[in-house]
Specification:
tRNA processing; elongated; alpha+beta; Beta Polymerase, domain 2; 3 domains; nucleotide binding; 7-stranded mixed β-sheet; coiled coil
């Protein structure tokens, strides 16, 4: 090693040590914020002859300077002993996880979970372990998923414990496992999805050996229930860097098993039929939708529905791709096919019905605007756009704008101007007509009275006809609406004499 290389090495080492010390100071500062609860709890355990450690994600977040009010602890006390120690101290106690050694409690605005040291074993068929309680913090930490989650702070002394290089990995923003990743993922394949989720949430890069193990063991994810996959996928998409998490899933082949429609968008592009890489385009749309989401509400919660729609809006393209004469490529009706595919995939992942419906509707509607940009819409068409979008309209605005990824600056500017114009027209018509409440000019009760009919299909058909007129023509006077109702009734052969 040359003198200059040696100096660089020393400088780099000093910088790393400085960052580690700074991170540890952050942890102490964060602990001071919640000191009353942690201090009281640790004193109770110490007085009873037990050890207590802040552990896992709580330590990681404290080191990152973002510790919340949900704290994780581990202890050598057995579950029943933990319950006794919490009784009389906590405002609320719950023991739904006591069979796994975990009890929860609430005090002074802070939620704590306390788990007895674990020394579990896995049959490597399912993912639920044979629960066994351990006796040491060392044995508990080595079984944890990632090194950045395998650090602890002993209380009340606040001694820092890092047996697996978690601090160095945190400083270097690296995601690695305490044990060999093959063993960790064989014990619990869900940890592979958690790796992608932490890449998204923390902005870390997975270690090479972690990526290699995820790639080799991707098929093991079949051991995990759809519900657990959905939870991790949702957390990934709601992270700070979801694109990185999705790219890791695709790179390792995990996406082929949990969200196969996404890697399927990596269409081959030959020299005669040029078109966008739909996969890369969709990731860009996801990025741009998140930018719009954050600019609209910087302090708001991540919008899972918008992010799912942005990622999946073009999943119908592979099934609808057609090569045209002259070298063109078309994807006719891919929004219709895509909406059906979205419903099928999200159902398989056990998403709630309202989420499935909203994402599918956004995918179905995302191309509608291009009819506006190609030519002038009537007021009727604008009303229908608003009516069909309903409460999804703000999300649809963001999705359509995000879907513009062309590098042609003139074309991009023209599309944005066209959408600006559409939003302005929507605002003008809405102000005049209250588009958010587009309904027929006669309600069901009045329809029954005027036609002399009982509740039934005729009332619904008449109501729908009047709503279509309302969308086409805008508001009508009461007399006009009655006249149109009678005209419709005569055409249907309904006796209104």
């Amino acid at each position: 090693m040359s003198p200059s290389q040696h100096n660089d090495f020393v400088t780099s080492a000093e910088q790393l040590q400085s960052r580690e010390r700074r991170a540890q100071r952050n942890a102490v500062v964060e602990l001071v914020k919640i000191a009353p609860v942690a201090e009281e709890l640790s004193q109770r355990f110490a007085a009873a002859g037990h050890r207590l450690y802040l552990v896992g994600g709580s330590v990681r977040d404290a080191l990152l300077g973002r510790l919340g009010t949900d704290l994780d602890f581990t202890t050598d006390a057995r579950p029943e002993q933990v319950r006794d120690l919490l009784t009389g101290w906590a405002e609320t106690i719950w023991d739904t996880g006591i069979q796994f050694g975990t009890l929860g409690a609430y005090r002074h605005g802070t939620t704590v979970e306390i788990t007895t040291f674990r020394a579990d074993t896995y049959d490597r068929v399912g993912r639920n372990p044979d629960v066994a309680f351990g006796d040491t913090i060392e044995g508990d930490l080595v079984r944890r998923d990632f090194t950045v989650n395998a650090m602890a702070i002993e209380l009340p002394s606040r001694s820092f414990i890092d047996l697996h290089g978690g601090m160095a990995d945190l400083v270097n923003r690296r995601l690695d496992t305490p044990a060999a990743p093959e063993d960790s993922f064989a014990d619990d394949p869900l940890r592979m999805l958690r790796a992608a989720r932490f890449v998204s949430q923390l902005g870390f890069t997975a270690a090479d050996r972690v990526v290699e193990a995820m790639t080799d063991m991707a098929t093991e994810i079949a051991r995990i229930t759809a519900e657990r996959v959905q939870v991790e996928l949702s957390k990934l998409l709601c992270g700070e860097f979801p694109r990185s998490g999705i790219e890791l899933l695709v790179e390792t082949g995990l996406a082929d098993h949990v969200l196969p429609e996404v890697p399927a968008m990596k269409l081959e592009i030959d020299e005669h039929h040029q078109h966008k890489d739909v996969y890369r385009h969709s990731l860009t749309v996801l990025d741009q939708a998140i930018d719009l989401e954050r600019s609209a509400d910087p302090a708001g919660e991540p919008d899972l529905v918008l992010r799912l729609a942005a990622l999946l809006h073009d999943i119908g393209k592979p099934a609808t791709r057609r090569f045209e004469s002259g070298g063109g490529v078309s994807f006719h009706h891919h929004e219709v096919v895509g909406a059906k595919m979205v419903r099928k995939r999200l159902r398989a992942l056990r998403y709630p019905k309202d989420v499935i419906g909203q994402v599918a509707d956004l995918v179905f509607l995302h191309l509608r605007f291009h009819g506006y940009s190609d030519g002038q819409w009537t007021d009727s068409a604008v009303r229908r756009y608003v009516n069909d979008a309903g409460p999804l309209l703000p999300r649809l605005h963001k999705l359509v704008r995000a879907d513009c990824t062309t590098r042609n600056k003139r074309k991009a500017a023209a599309l944005q101007r066209a959408y600006d114009d559409l939003e302005e027209r929507i605002a003008r018509i809405a102000e005049a007509e209250d588009l958010a409440k587009v309904r027929p000019d006669l309600d069901g009760n009045e329809i029954m009275r005027l036609l002399g009919v009982e509740p039934g299909p005729v009332v619904g058909q008449a109501w729908k006809h009047l709503k279509e007129l309302r969308l086409d023509r805008g508001p009508m006077s009461h007399d006009e609406a009655v006249e149109e109702l009678f005209r419709w009734a005569r055409e249907q052969g309904i006796d209104i004499s």
